[in-house]
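Crash report, auto-generated. Payload:
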Amino acid sequence: MNRIQSKLQENKKLLSIYFTAGYPKIEDTLPVLQHLQKSGVDMVEIGLPFSDPLADGPTIQESSTAALRNGMTTEKLFEQLKNVRDTITLPLIIMGYFNPVLQYGVEAFCKKCNEIGIDGLILPDLPLDVYVEEYEATFKKYGLLNMFLITPQTSDERIRQIDNSSEGFIYMVSSASTTGAKSGFGQEQESYFNRIAEMKLKSPQIVGFGISNKETFNAATKSTKGAIIGSAFIKQLTANGTEKIADFVNSIKN
Amino acid sequence: MKSYHANEKGYYGEFGGAFIPEMLYPNCEELRQNYLKIMAEPSFKEEFDQLLKDYVGRPTPLYFAERLSNKYGTKIYLKREDLCHTGAHKVNNTIGQILMAKRLGKNRIIAETGAGQHGVATATVCALMGIECVVYMGEIDIARQAPNVARMKMLGAEVRPALSGSRTLKDATNEAIRDWINNPVDTHYIIGSVVGPHPYPDMVARFQSVISEEIKWQLKEKEGRENPDYVVACVGGGSNAAGAYYHYLDEPEVGIIAVEAAGKGIDTGESAATSALGKVGIIHGSKTLLMQTPDGQITEPYSISAGLDYPGVGPMHAHLFTSKRGEFISITDDDAMQAGLELCKLEGIIPAIETSHALAIFDQKQFKKDDVVVINLSGRGDKDLQNFIDYFKL
Ligand SMILES: Cc1ncc(COP(=O)(O)O)c(C=O)c1O
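Recovered output after restart:
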């Protein structure tokens, strides 16, 4: 069983952290992963930086620009992660935009992920129909799960389709927004969370966007399997470097 | 028969589609499900045609450029989009899209702009309809296109600087898309060219297709035939070209010539000639040719003309290029500027610098004496006066 799937079966709410590879310093990718594992997070999304991150707000945009300026590339990331499984047992997901994957070659990219021990991918701008028609077989061949996004605007019908094609979790975007744009949840989120809970999907849901602290983490995970923190984590990386990662994680978990 | 139009999923050959994050799916899907239906409504057509006639000033003339023809030994016609209200073809699209937005019940408009032409055309139709308008423009472009920024403000639009990335057109487009993600219900995004996710390239091409629709009957009057031997247009994203080619795409006897900006030269690292320098990839939700690093990071193009300074090209044009249906020529800054000045001197018309690229092909492409060559004169040069002044030390 894929590490993501085993993790999803554990009887607890999962905390997942997103960070941009090669940020704040180019060689920080592995140390950040090690700090995260030590501080007890459940899963990690490693961001492959892209020049034009359409779905991201300023915090992740800036970290991506900085990582690229640091010299981050796809090849470099694979190089950094070559021996990641010597120390890291967490489920690992690479999250990025489709164009860099396309340029690397989708099959070559998936093969490399498999060799390293990556468990899944999140490529927000790879649409469901294109994935199913052109790439699903390749992902499966290399044991990679593809996680899809849904939003408050996604229709029930499309959510069912996405649920059918999902083998890991569904990435529930908390509100109609780019990353880091909104903080706190209101009426809209509550009815959205309820609507999804009532659909009784086969795939567990993990909420992302707008989660920044214990309060929003708890609100997001009331009816879901877990939550992902991205921008808030990157902000603290920017402020403190890799030193205070454990403090940040503890402030969410305890 | 092979067609060079979009199929129902928005693909031109292998190019096009909608490579968008799920947050944009409902917006694009709403548009996709409605655009053809709305465009086919008699009341829509009537309102669109009426505004193009009374407000934009269509039909624009098809003008036989006698002195230019004599110089190059062929028959050159100029399709005078420069005479459109606001000074370029861009307004054909913004009129169409504002009517579309109204029928979709939207009450807020966003747009991106590079040189400011599309921003002005969008601000104009928003003023006309009394709809709120926000235009994203790269911080660097705001500084170098001050008159158009002022125009947009006078027309009541809010101009928001795009501060991310390289702070030019591609980043303004990113910001507009992000705004749309954050405002999915009440807002319509008026994209300025035949780029972006399906259905934009096809929708914008259809709104611009009035250009070739008119060329057909105008040429019939003047030459006794609807089809020229060549139709020529400059390509930034490719909307004026798409409009000029539209009714000729599937007429194989009509040669299609696309003119891109070589900037300082294709091999100088300062160029915007996407067909020569681009590779297949994804930009702004569309699979097309784009300029990028081997690692798939989108690179910054360069051209003296802000309207051609885009690292991609619409999927229709990517397909015209790879299928060899279209002939692609690239023109340097210097050759474009000279050709622009030449048109002033020979015909008394000051063209936009974008358009000047299309006028500069005669050194690279020979035509026969009785060939009929239609060049789409996409815009006038008023907006470029400062550039002309600086370049020619006027
Ligand atoms: C006069 C003129 N021509 C051409 C263009 C290029 O755009 P497109 O390739 O979409 O026609 C512009 C864009 O600003 C323009 O202002």
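Post-recovery validation: Chain B has two domains: 14-51+90-204, 59-87+209-392.
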